[in-house]
Design brief:
Length: about 325
């Protein structure tokens, strides 16, 4: 979500100061002269065969690399992300999917912070002197249920990918180059997109009508921003005034926008917006936007059935804890 939807809070500033103190840095972010050199091991959540692959599969919407930092080394050091959540200066951020490696650890770290009224969870103590609680922290009572709903959808996508029924699906944040190539070749593709609001100055935070000239006539289409700042990808409705366009926009508003599901699979022919070189899919019908990577529920069911039967065939010896 863009900067427009993320206010700077006092709790956020306290979290930044906690991190500097925790690492022995000065308040301007530089290492303190008397502090020992900080060494870290870097660990990626999604592992690929190459460094380039790891960077591509472990980046946020702005192209920044995401990784776990183990201060002092992985073997005996401290997972910095877990330390921040355990101290209560961040919730367990599952908005874009759970941690593949440390899910249980993050759950326990957040539970402990909540139970001990630490950081953002100690709001009743922290907001003394603040007129608005919202000045101190974001409204996590509203955000967390939304994040966990999104997490379930991402988890479904990961499972369908493992089962083999979503391996044809592109993700703008991961497959930027592949999407551009598919658009240049005008291939029919499926893309897993995120309709969460990005810009408060356009409809639903993601779409706007634009005028264009075709065959000497002025027409109005709709562009829907379905990618990210670092990985642009759009949907295009050729006739913004058609009845089918109204159905598409209503579906997005009711089911996918704001704090709705956000995530959807879009199927259609890709092409390139030549003025900016952005890959797009033309959406002519509401049926092109779905909740699953395949419209055939039997295919989804049987692929999953085969996958889980194979997994169940592996014998696991259970022992008491």
């Amino acid at each position: 979500m863009s900067k427009f939807y993320k206010p700077i809070t006092y709790g956020g500033k306290e979290a930044a100061e906690f991190l500097k103190d925790h690492l022995g840095f000065l308040h301007d972010g530089r290492p303190a002269p008397e502090s020992a050199r900080v060494s870290v091991d870097v660990e990626f959540d999604a592992v690929e065969d190459t460094i380039v692959g790891c960077r591509r599969h472990n980046q946020d919407n702005y192209g920044r690399v995401l990784a776990y930092l183990h201060v002092g080394g992985k073997a005996s050091g401290e997972n910095l992300s877990l330390a921040i959540v355990r101290a209560g200066f961040s919730p367990y951020h599952v908005k874009y999917g759970r941690s593949r490696l440390y899910h249980a650890d993050f759950l326990e770290a957040e539970r402990t912070a909540m139970a001990e009224d630490r950081g953002v969870w100690g709001l009743a103590h922290a907001v003394e002197g603040f007129f608005y609680p919202g000045d101190y922290t974001r409204d996590y009572s509203r955000l967390l249920p939304w994040w966990w709903m999104r997490e379930e959808i991402v988890q479904d996508f990961r499972r369908w990918e493992a089962e083999g029924v979503a391996r044809h699906v592109f993700v703008p944040r991961v497959h930027k180059d592949e999407l551009i190539a598919a658009a240049n070749d005008r291939k029919t593709i499926t893309v897993f997109v995120d309709f969460q609001p990005k810009n408060p100055y356009v409809d639903l935070g993601i779409m706007r009508d634009v005028e264009y000239i075709a065959a000497g006539q002025t027409k109005v289409g709709t562009v829907i921003y379905a990618g990210t700042k670092a990985h642009p990808f759009n949907l295009w409705i050729d006739n913004a005034r058609s009845s089918e366009a109204a159905k598409i926009k209503t579906l997005i508003e009711r089911r996918y926008s704001r704090t709705g599901r956000n995530y959807a699979y879009v199927h259609g022919k890709a092409f390139t917006y030549h003025k900016k070189g952005i890959p797009q899919i033309q959406v002519d019908f509401a049926d092109q936007i779905t909740d699953t990577p395949n419209k055939d529920p039997l295919k989804l069911h049987h692929s999953g059935e085969a996958y889980h039967l194979a997994a169940a065939s592996v014998k696991v010896k259970r022992v008491a804890a």
